[in-house]
Structures
1.
Amino acid sequence: MKSLHIYFALMITLLAISLAGCGKEEVVTNVGKLEFEQPLNIPPLLEATMESDGSKHFTLTMQTGRTEFLPGKMADTSGINGTYLGPTIRAARGDKVSFDVVNDLGEQSTLHWHGMKLPAVMDGGPHQMIDAGKTWSPHWTIDQPSATVWYHPHLHGKTAEHVYRGLAGMFIIDDEDSKKLPSNYGIDDIPLIVQDKLFTDDGKFLEDDEGIFGTLGDEILINGTYDPYLKVTASQVRFRLLNGSNARAYHFGFNDGKTFKLVANDAGLLQEPVTMDRIMLSPGERAEIVVEFEPGEEAILHSFNGHAGIDSGEFDLLKIIAAPELAESAPIDGQLSTVPEIEAPENARVRQFKLTMENKINDKYMDMYRIDEVVPAGATEIWEINNFGHSHNFHIHNAAFRVLSVNDKEPPEYERGRKDTVFIPNGSNVKIVVEFGNYADPHYPLMYHCHLLRHEDDGMMGQFLLVEPGTESEVPTTLPKKENKDGHDGH
């Protein structure tokens, strides 16, 4: 234990020296550059067809195309039911849903439901490969609290490339609690998918594989819109913030210090709203905020500079213009969620994970055929994650968790809600209590990984099985080898 503390102290010292040496570096910024001339694109709600068994059926087609982001310039992109990004899917707790995911990309991919509790074979991870020209048809019953989740490819070794091109979309889960908040999609319930990009002079996407984090762009797209503005007509607006970037983190706030109410983390509503003026989201994290506006008010959603490497930069994101007359919204006070907080049982299993400079977890790279952990389905466990490397974060499939401590201290109130992804700075220790899904499957693994997509592609990922309680020791920890057409055998 003493050597562990010494190691952490050394790492923190090295980080401080590194930051001091970078103090004179120019901050990447777009402030003063935007004119806010483009109306914000609101991804359409995808209409479902009702099947004979009562399920809602959706069709998603992954495809390539060309998209104009910078005026008069076209970029080669990918999208879902369009040339860039995908439609918003909306369903309620208790709904049976089914999908046809059509792969018209001309190459293999997958589609993962990030934040969803569902059977492992429906997860859309690297084991649910969709060949070019083929269709994958997952189905499940939604059984989790209201949340803003999302979908994106999870192709082993190519996730960063496919997401960066534009393959992503939002998935909204409703329940009775969520109806207390503004819920009129596109009016007072607005999705904001935030992504950074590098553009060439002729307006095409540029990827940077040289840096330690992967691509960190100097231009920002909101819902695929460059230089965006939004007109609002309600006195209170719910914004669903999704950090859909490959590596960049954002410190969201308003450039004039305007406050907002945080009402939800990744995986569900807070017990009560928390008034804030800034919130940080690393890649894959989500937050729901409610902002109050005065008639005729103008405000600029902004991302403030940070010092963790992935959050360096100062960006204007979106200009919001309130109408001269606003529809009055119901006040947001008191209890938001009736879902109990995630609590650790007295005899909770404790697992430990080490993140390293080499983008390994517990000194191992991802292996498609190795099972790293076996977890009883429906279990609640404590996971401790120690970061000895660069800035990382940590996402767990088919689970929700609550942050118990950061460096042995209780986290701020706003970080205590239901989550599935957590930022872990260099030299930090984070302890979480994890509530796993109740779908046992000894054959199809689930993932835990860093959601900085370059790190994930480099092999910073492990696999676990959810199995019937009491059978953990009976389950093989290797998967049978099979032909892998993309050439990935191991990390």
Note: The two ends are 31 Å apart (CA to CA).
2.
Amino acid sequence: MTNRYSSYLKGLNIIIDFILLNLSFYVGYVITNDSWYWEITPGHNLTHIILMNLVWYLSSHSCHLYTDVFTREAVPIFKSVLRSLFVYGLIMAFLQNNVLFLPYNYKTLVLSFAFFDFSLIGWKLIFLLQRRPHKNSLTQFRPVVIVGTGRNGLDLYHYLNNNTYLGYKVLGFFNHEGDGSRIKNNINVIGKVDECIEFVRRQNIDEIFCALPDEDFHHINKLMRDADRYLIRFKLVPDFKDHFKKNVMVQLYGHLPVLSPRMEPLESKGHQILKRGFDIIFSLFVIVFILSWIIPILGLFIKLESQGPVFFRQIRSGKNNKPFYCLKFRSMTVNKRANSLQATKNDRRITKIGKYLRKTSLDELPQFINVLMGNMSVVGPRPHMIKHTKEYSAIIDRFMIRHFLTPGITGWAQVTGLRGETKTHKDMEKRVEADIWYLENWSLLLDCKIIFMTVYNVFRGDKKAF
């Protein structure tokens, strides 16, 4: 029953969203042109309508807006709504600037987009409020039993009870001791493992969760064979908690389940191409429109204040710990300790123009050349000096994980207050944790968010920039 209602509500959401999209555009057109009459011509208007609907379809599906609309919690649904609107607005703005056959002016598009935002969020709020009291009543819970009362079995029991949207109701447990129908630690132990199949057949239960330890393979195999014989679905819960302390990624290599300690979206070739394409376009834009004129100006100031090159080249740790030359505007006087001693607040080596460059992060701009060359990315973990990589990798267990990624000009650690001098090992541990979080949660939207926060911090001023 849950699946039937999920399909029905998914279809309803899709239809109403598209109605609101087209209605919003009509409202924007009417307000802009002060006329209720809208002439649809195949050459212009119809093309725009088709394109607009196609862009929304791609945006909403790429952001998983219609995934599990009946069972998913409200907060994830609203996040999907906001992501979908952001992607849709971004693509439509790009098309308006670069595609000549879009006939409408900015006022029409802005008004229609604003009305669509308001109406879509309002509709989703109404939908969630109406869904809330009926969510459990319309869900037909599937009765199941769990075999094994060890840590895995108890964890599974609590998870299924706390996540009712999955649609499971645990009737009780089976273990080797068997306690009849007595309650043990608030857990209903129905009987022994050998009695499980007979019980589920008698109660018309069609699913078993087996959480027996791996060494009990004899009982696991027998349960699996008996379940298959009587058309009972058998699900095995492997115990890998001793190896992995949090959520893991499971992949099947043939019949072998392979567990990874973390999700890595950028292991996908498609995501790698997407990120690299974004880096190339973004870095070319900065090089052509900013670096082309700012290098001569800043270079002159740097040269006038102190002797030495305009650019500072330093070997740093890159992806897979491969060294590369990182470029910056020189912000210090030429000194022998540049490759070993980290900059500190009120560092006497920093020049006057260098202080301004570091405060505004302008010293990092030449790194867009690194991005274009492929040594760096716009967003990623900040690259460290080789000396610091060796030091911290010896004392921080997960330090080297950040080198699975291409280093970035800015990153999640930098925009969440973890930039600048690392005075203690604890400071570096927090930065590493932020870098690993970015590795596990990467998306192109997250990169855009980090870039926006970086620009915002530059104009607002960052106390840790010196």
Note: Residues 296 and 438 are 35 Å apart (CA to CA).
